[in-house]
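call fold(seq) -> tokens
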Amino acid sequence: MPDTALLIVDMQCGVVAAEPAAVRLEQVLGSLKLAIAKARERSFPVIFVQHEEAGLERDSAAWQLHPALPATATDHFIYKRHGDSFCDTPLAALLENLGVSKLWLGGCATDFCVDSTLRNAVSLGFQVTVIADAHTTLSAFALSGEQVIDHFNAVWDATNATPQPLLVQPAAAL
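ret:
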């Protein structure tokens, strides 16, 4: 059984394709499609996480995954109400049942849901590879979305723990 799964967080129409759209969206979608193809070639589970809240009600148009992402009936789907994909969800149990100890991670939003999911995954003992070109966010606060993505990639890449629990790689290097 493979020990790695691809985890894609909150790539929903109402999150990434609304106005304003998430930054680098076309590049991120292309990188996620490449990661999905590579995961499926290796028989890695593909897990989509979908956020639910006011405006993102389950089964609404806004809640749906972006249509560019090729989800299949054999994929796994996790629904969440908090930024962290592990908080009050069956994600940890699913990964345990699948025998997964390593994650490839991408999605939205870099500075919120992706980061909190990543931090909890590492705390739970998973080795995480952030797909550097497969996560996005919105421009907000004092930084542009591009600056946020670049900053978080640099911060995550600077992790120097041994053994390395966190790697940052582009989709082409997976």
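Helices lie at 13-16, 25-41, 91-98, 110-123, 145-157.
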